[in-house]
Design brief:
Elements: E1 2-6, H1 12-23, H2 27-36, E2 43-48, E3 51-65, E4 69-81, H3 90-104, E5 109-112, H4 118-124, E6 129-140, H5 141-144, E7 153-155, H6 158-168, E8 174-176, H7 179-190, E9 195-201, E10 204-212, E11 217-224, H8 231-244, E12 249-254, E13 269-276, H9 279-284
Length: 298
């Protein structure tokens, strides 16, 4: 018999085992989730014959659509099935059961960031559609060494980062994160000498989330700044990367091009997906809308 249910504290050892088997993350990385964000109801599990075979964590976020409204949205994270149980459709059953759980909480939307391109097809077969896109670019140490740094970025608290982030994203559809979700991200950053940063430019505030991927690469998982900044200002801000998160190269994610043009931009790659659990929203939603999810906890 298969049952999908919210987790209980007694499930945690099994959850941790599934997480490690699926993603290969360190104990310290997994500890951060259970220390900063976990509550039993924030993980949904699939149980078969009394054994937990599949799980997903979820973040309680808000989908902010300017001029339309704000919608509670469950961001699925760490969707995992035990290797011995794969190929039997259990992940699909888990997602369907999670949908019912979210409906019971009055949550009208679900988002997720597929871990690899092939998983876009899997989630697409389970009701998700493309919605959230991202512009990805790289900066290299050799290029940045030619200029003088701006020294504009400084470490930020979770609260300050969240406030600046919402200010910068106020006019585009985006996912807003509560402070405990941002605290989880800050913990992930701290494991590899990264962090949450804010700063000021002549055109206004900016914010940056830096997380180390390896010794050579730092992921700037989110870089938000005013639209009206000059290219000279931008060049000097790039130089702060070496100061706050030394590396050979930096992967930079932004919501849009330098102009933040409105609408579908061919430079924006597929990133995250959306499923409306509310049938009225599903019918009325304009699927040409480009949203920004930003902080994928990948």
């Amino acid at each position: 018999m298969v049952t999908v249910r919210p987790s209980v504290f007694e499930d945690v050892p099994t959850q941790r085992e599934l997480w490690k088997l699926a993603f290969g993350d360190s104990d310290a990385y997994i500890d951060n989730f259970y220390r900063t964000y976990y509550r039993p109801e924030r993980v949904v599990v699939l149980e078969e014959e009394g054994a937990v075979c599949s799980m997903t964590a979820w973040f309680d976020t808000t989908f902010v659509v300017p001029g339309q409204g704000e919608y509670r949205a469950a961001y699925l994270y760490a969707v995992a099935t035990h290797p011995d149980c794969r190929g039997r459709g259990l992940a699909g059953e888990l997602l369907a059961g999670a949908d019912e759980f979210f409906r019971g909480l009055g949550i009208p939307a679900v988002t997720t960031v597929p871990a690899e391109p092939s998983l876009h097809n899997f989630f697409g077969a389970n009701g998700f559609r493309e919605c959230f896109r991202v512009l990805e670019s790289y900066q290299y140490r050799e290029e940045l060494e030619k200029l003088s740094p701006a020294n504009a970025l400084r470490p930020a608290s979770v609260e300050e980062y969240g406030q600046v982030r919402e200010q910068l994203l106020a006019d585009i559809p985006h996912i807003a994160y509560p402070e405990d979700a941002l605290a989880y991200q800050a913990g992930c950053c701290a494991l590899g000498d990264g962090g949450l940063f804010v700063g000021d430019t002549p055109a206004g505030p900016m914010c940056l989330c830096a997380e180390r991927a390896d010794g050579e690469l730092v992921m700037m998982k989110e870089f938000l700044c005013p639209r009206q900044r000059s290219l000279q200002d931008m060049a000097r801000i790039w130089l702060d990367f070496q100061r706050i998160a030394p590396a050979r190269r930096w992967q930079v994610r932004q919501p849009r091009s330098l102009e933040w043009s409105v609408g579908v931009n061919e430079d924006l790659g597929k990133f995250a997906m959306l499923k409306w659990l509310d049938s009225a929203m599903e019918k009325s939603w304009n699927w040409d809308t480009v949203g920004y999810l930003g902080l994928a906890f990948d």
